Fold:
Amino acid sequence: MTVSLCIIARNEGKVIGNLLEQVKKQTYPKDKTEIVLIDSNSSDDTRNIFGRFSDENKSNYIDIKILTNRGRNQASGWNTAISNAAGDVIIRVDAHAEIPENFIEKNIEVIESGEDICGGARPNKIDDPTPFKEMLFLAESSMFGSSIAGYRRRSEGKRYVSSIFHGAYKREVFDKVGLFNEDLGRTEDNELHYRMRKAGYKICQSDEIISYQHIRNSLFGMIKQKFGNGRWIGLTLCVCYQCLSSFHFVPFMFVLFLILSGAVAVAGGIFNMSWMFLPFIVLISLYAMADLLMTLVAVLTSPKKHIFQIFLPIVFFILHISYGIGTLVGIIEMPFFKLKIISKRRASNGTADNDNR
Structure:
């Protein structure tokens, strides 16, 4: 069974070399492996690193393809990779990932056992650990700080999930359900996996498969990431609300109730009605208790203890607020986003009509 291992990158010159070294060490036969590398218009030396890797290793593989992502987002990059991949199985790996030597081999074993789509846990890692980065890592690794997505942590045996990271797919799956929706950013996986499930495919997560994802190295980077993730949840409502779960909207609901109860409290202050402060006080109190409890759980289960962990409750709060505000902004932008999609499709259809004349 031939495999196309696909990687897309934009300005990842500092990290992509390490991932390519791990690709070289894979135990799956190289004469059954194709490497598809997509450069998303990098301004650093990412493409040069791709080129050196190809020059030094092309004879060992079926092929090494270096292509350019002509679109503007990750979905268009993956579509470029999938459209040009020739393998029986297509495996996606993010540029900020680490993969063990048996990563491809274990994926193929699961596929050959009868699965159409598979993957494994994708826990987090940190670059150049410091106490502060380890505190951020603890926040990102916690269900309270990130999400309940199954791929974020390992489980025993095989189970079927709604979505997977660093997935392996039989080519026929894309032939049947189509490619990624390029109108979406950051939620393109949710939408594609929803279509796959609707088409009757099961997404298998196996404890035999594991890969790692590097977290953002700064609090600002994490805030920016959470805001962006939340914003795309809001925007995706007008494209495929079915691919989202209620858990995606918990931070938004917290922010919304915080705003509403805060407004009621301000009104209470203006009209001298002290009881109007109660909803705000109750909300903050309940959140504070949950925040402190989850901080305690995270610290107690952490192998390392240090002083920076006292900031964990604040970091949790900041990340939740960032995600929730992002979703609120996305919902506000949603009508304009919908109009943009409609205009884009009309322009595309007009171009297609002209080409057919």
Remarks:
- The chain has two domains: 3-131+150-216, 234-356.
